[in-house]
Design goal:
This protein is of the alpha/beta class. It has one domain: Alpha/Beta hydrolase fold, catalytic domain (Rossmann fold, 3-Layer(aba) Sandwich), CATH 3.40.50. It is built from eleven helices and eight strands. It has an eight-stranded mixed β-sheet with strand order 1-2-4-3-5-6-7-8, with helices on both faces.
Length: 271
């Protein structure tokens, strides 16, 4: 099983795992995160798949962008997949990364064979009041002042505030989170909200007709866990809720999350 990195392919940093001839899986992180967030599930996936992790523009080790509109980010990913010659791909997105995954399928259905969305809120009305530590870190007036001086402990508290069980946050994820600028984070967050305000994710998926897996923590602290059932309206969608899991299933329940993704990718490939 090989691992190598390609820095700045169309301005985006990529990490490859698994055999290159295997069916491809693309992993897209959420707001304020990076490709490092997928670390706990990669070993299971890479045994059977060519796994590609990406840092979205302005996140991790990718270059900043002039626009953080969701369709624009999806367009960049399409160019990356075209250059790599990968299709059809099982595309997996966590949180707002699920919106980029959906937009990629909207723009380039020829590239996307199936979609898995993890903790991706269906519409703005499903958003819960955020934990105090996050409101302080990302909101005015303290956010812009605290952002440059965040300690590792503060970053870990911010990440785990949306979890329902104790988790170990990988060091590389903390280091990569430190690279994200405050303005980049806030802009990307606003553009993600604009995308699901314009049209809900279940509506968009219904129009696509692509195989869909939705994974939601039954104790998600960012999105109303009951909103996972909004995806029941998508024909053929499989919705899985994980008991005792919050907003970060990849860190809170990596074994279960990995098994669900493996099963889904295998089923989608056989279609």
């Amino acid at each position: 099983m090989g691992n190598d990195e390609v820095k700045h392919l169309h301005g985006m940093h990529l990490v490859h795992d698994g055999p290159r001839q295997a069916p491809p899986v693309l992993l897209i992180h959420g707001s304020g995160a990076s490709s490092g967030s997928w670390g706990p599930v990669v070993p299971a996936l890479a045994g059977r798949h060519h796994v590609v992790r990406v840092d979205l523009p302005g996140h991790g080790r990718s270059l900043p962008a002039s626009s953080y509109d969701v369709p624009e980010q999806a367009g960049r990913l399409a160019r990356v997949l075209d250059e790599l010659g990968l299709r059809p791909v099982t595309v997996v997105g966590h949180s707002s990364g699920g919106y980029v995954a959906t937009a990629l399928a909207e723009q380039r259905p020829d590239l996307v064979g199936s979609l898995a969305l993890i903790s991706s809120g269906p519409s703005p009305d499903a958003l819960l009041p955020q934990p105090a530590v996050l409101r302080i870190l990302i909101g005015p007036p303290l956010g812009p002042l605290l952002w440059p001086i965040r300690s590792d402990a503060m970053l870990r508290r911010g990440m785990t505030a949306v979890c329902d069980r104790p988790v170990s946050v990988p060091d590389d994820l903390v280091a990569e989170a430190r690279r994200i600028g405050y303005r980049t984070f806030r802009t990307a967050l606003r553009r993600s909200t604009a995308y699901i305000t314009e049209r809900s994710v279940p509506e968009r998926l219904t129009a696509l007709g692509v195989p869909v897996l939705v994974i939601f923590g039954a104790a998600d602290r960012r999105w109303d866990p009951a909103s996972a059932h909004h995806y029941d309206a998508v024909p053929g969608a499989r919705v899985e809720q994980l008991p005792g899991v919050g907003h970060l299933p990849v860190l809170e329940a990596p074994a279960t999350t990995g098994e669900l993704l493996l099963d889904f990718a295998a089923t989608a490939t056989r279609r």
